[in-house]
Amino acid sequence: MCVPSASLAVWASAWLNGAAAADDVLDALSAWGELQEFVAADQETADRTGLPVDGERAAGPALWLAALRRLGADNAALVLPVPGDVRGLGGPGPVARPALERGEAAVFSSAALAAVPNNVADGVLRWTVFSLSGSPIADHTPIGEAEHGMTIAVREAAATLVSLDVARHRPNVRAEIAEFISTRPGLAWPNGMPPRSLRVLERSVEVEAILRAAVEGDGGAVSASAAQARADALRPLGDAVRSARCAAIAEAVRQLSGQYRKG
Q1: Contacts for 223-232: CB closer than 8 Å, 24+ residues apart
Q2: Are 254 and 142 in contact, with CB atoms under 8 Å apart?
Q3: pLDDT tens per residue across span 83-121
Q4: Beta-sheet pairing, 35-40 with 124-131
Q5: pTM for this structure?
Q6: Separation between Cα atoms, residue 245 and residue 53, nearest integer Å
Q7: Rg of the Cα trace of the chain?
Q8: What are the residue ranges spanned by the domains of the chain?
Q9: Cβ–Cβ contacts within 10 Å for residue 257, how many?
Q10: Residue 29: enclosing H or E segment and its boundaries?
Q11: 250 phi, psi to nearest 5 deg
């Protein structure tokens, strides 16, 4: 479920707050690639973090975690940027373009760093680490509000598609949705992961599968205008999924960090 940056944000936050061991972080990230590599986007970031500059031999996760600890990171946030909405990336800067291209990033505000993943080879996930040029504006949408928003968006999108006559039945669509869900990697989460966060993340995968099925073959649309109408109807649903995922990860990070502080 979700994306690599979600795993990194939750597990690194848990480790930074004493709720997970370093080996647990490495094991969790391996669900996205057997080999995890870390490089700095530029020399300044390399000097700050001790990571090799992109183009040199990459470092492993242990060096990255050590850099986070040394630079005073306390937790992370999941950012899922799209064109027109790059909140959480600290404003214009070198991280914006790669984060937009990938559609995700893990942001460590207190250390002024962000990490963007990229699949560079079979089983190899490389994280490029950027220094942030400004203070990220956090999205504080409560998880309950985000979950409700996703539910409402599903209903409204379905009703709109039916009214526009672009929700025609396609054979095997249920099988396509089930296959997409089944092929998502099975992820481990830290002990104490909030059940509500898990539920929202699982639901977001189901909704993402529905979105993909609706887009396939123009979702039954037979003209350019119908295709555009379908895209307009689905856009709020995509936004709701993004918001719900970010809220679920933020709630998980908040509770995992809070457990440590109370302990």
Answers
A1: 226/164, 226/165, 226/166, 227/166, 229/164, 229/166, 230/161, 230/164, 230/166
A2: no
A3: 988 889 987 789 999 999 999 999 999 999 999 999 999
A4: parallel
A5: 0.85
A6: 31
A7: 19
A8: 4-138, 143-246
A9: 18
A10: helix 22-29
A11: -60, -40
